[in-house]
Design a protein that fits this description.
This protein has 339 residues and is mainly alpha-helical. The protein is 59% helix and 1% strand. It has a two-stranded antiparallel ribbon with strand order 1-2. Helix 1 packs parallel to helix 3, helix 7 runs antiparallel to helix 8 and helix 10 runs parallel beside helix 13. The termini are far apart.
Length: 339
């Protein structure tokens, strides 16, 4: 007689065809347009960095699971997602061994020390990026201009033309304007980095954050087709940054250029692919809205008043730390409970 396996669990019993592997594979598929865009704009260097981060992330997770005497589950694609997202946060010109160290740190410190997938409180890819930024700030802030497919630099692993990022130039011009030097620099930045160039990705920046249209294609796949993410975090996150950029900096600095702050930097990447991480984001709809509002506020504060031109990484990490408290504040009442 065939043995029947029964899973005994408390009610309610909710079944779904989705698994960790299927969800993570969908995220990888959603990231493919941005992967292609990064290779088109930054050449073979982009492919090398992405492959390096993925390989060392998977290898690190495998070794940790073996050393911790736990089931090896590298086939769930979670380490692959971490490797891709970390690579998307890195400049095209970064040495491969630094990218590899970042991937190892992301998995070991950002994920496995907490117990593995489902137990980490911070987004592992952003933990790796924060570590690299603190350890090698020069490499992490050296940006490359996009290369043409016919250029010799496109196929080169070492040669590239460096340039400042859009937010880097904005930060310099903003400091000049605040010190009374006029707003000519800001106007120059807005004219140099048009919304169309930021939207399509033909600008200096990290590998996966420059092409907004490629990221939106992946977001559409996850949001509307697969329904793995909801609107609460991405919409409130992006809307908060845009609204504060429009009204918060004064007409001489910000008004009319809110689209610049939405399309530049890693806001779109962070809003759809990092802040929505199921493990490190709130589980209630109201909690997710609070998460998005808080992260958007932090991005605005860091970009405008802080010393660093970008704030997406730290805004999400800080809100990750606040997620347990947000969940506690917004958890629904039990049926029949009276406060």
């Amino acid at each position: 007689m065939e043995k029947v396996k029964l899973a005994v669990t408390p009610a309610p019993h909710i079944k779904s065809i989705d698994t960790v592997s299927s969800v993570m594979l969908d995220v990888v598929i959603a990231l493919c347009p941005a992967i292609l865009a990064s290779i088109i704009f930054f050449g073979i260097k982009a492919l090398i960095i992405i492959v390096t981060c993925v390989a060392f992330a998977v290898l690190s997770e495998y070794i940790c699971q073996r050393l911790m005497d736990r089931p090896v589950r590298i086939n769930d694609f979670s380490a692959v997602v971490t490797g891709i997202l970390l690579a998307f946060c890195l400049p095209p010109s970064i040495p491969w061994y630094i990218a590899a160290l970042g991937a190892v740190f992301a998995i070991v410190i950002g994920k496995m020390v907490f117990g593995g997938l489902g137990y980490n409180i911070f987004n592992p890819a952003l933990v790796g990026r924060a570590f690299l930024l603190a350890s090698w700030p020069v490499f992490m802030t050296s940006w490359s201009l996009p290369e043409k497919l016919t250029s010799s630099n496109w196929a080169s692993l070492y040669d590239s033309t460096t340039s400042a990022s859009a937010l880097g130039m904005f930060k310099e011009a903003l400091n000049v304007a605040k010190s009374g030097g006029g707003t000519q620099g800001l106007e120059s930045v807005y004219s140099q980095f048009s919304i169309s160039s930021l939207f399509f990705g033909n600008v200096p920046g990290s590998l996966g954050e420059t092409s907004v249209i490629a990221l939106l294609l992946g977001a559409f796949y996850l949001w509307f087709y697969k329904k793995h993410i909801t609107w609460h975090i991405p919409v409130t996150y992006i809307a908060t940054v845009g609204l504060l950029a429009y009204i918060g900096g004064g007409p001489e600095l910000m008004t009319g250029n809110y689209l610049f702050h939405i399309t530049s930097g890693g806001l779109i990447l962070g809003a759809f692919f990092m802040a929505t991480d199921m493990v490190t984001s709130p589980i209630t709809p109201y909690g997710r809205i609070i998460f998005g509002l808080g992260a958007g506020l932090l991005v605005f504060i860091i970009r405008i008043f802080g010393g660093y031109p970008e704030g997406v990484c730290y805004s999400i990490l800080i809100m990750n730390a606040a997620t347990p408290l947000i969940d506690r504040w917004t958890r629904p009442r039990k049926f029949g409970e009276v406060r």
